[in-house]
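Q: I have 128 residues here and want to know how they pack in 3D. Can you give me a structure?
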Amino acid sequence: MKTVKKKAPSIQFEVTSELEIEGFLASCKDDKFAPAFDEAENLIVTIGKDRVGLVSLVIRKGETLLTQLYVRPEFRSFGIGTQILECLSMFSGVKYLRVLATPSTAAYYEERGFEPDAGHIVLTKVLE
C-alpha cells in the first residue's frame, strides 16, 4: 500500500484497492451524504488508525480536479476537510485545485478560498 504524507502529519492518504474502497463506502451506507463510487483515483483518508474519509481525484497536466471529498459524520466539525484541502494543494506539480461542488457545498469551498469558475457548468445525462 502506497502512503503519501503531506503538511499535516496526522493526515495520510492511502491508495487502496477497489475492495477496500467498497468496504469503506459500505460502512458509510446510513449517511445520506455518503460518497458515490466513481472512476477517479480514490484515496482513503486516515488519521492514526481511523479511516475518516474518502477523496476522489482526477489529476492531469498540473491540475487536480477534486470530484469528491467525504468525511465520516463522527469526524466532522474538527477541521479535517480543511486540512485535507491544504494537503491536496501541496501535491507536487499541482498548479490548480478545482472541485465539483453542489449548491449545498459551494459556500464551504468559497470560505476556503475557492472561487466560482465562470463558464464551467457541469451537466449530467442519465443513460438507462
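Q: Anything worth noting?
A: The CA atoms of residues 84 and 93 lie 17 Å apart. Residues 4-8 have pLDDT under 50 and may be disordered.
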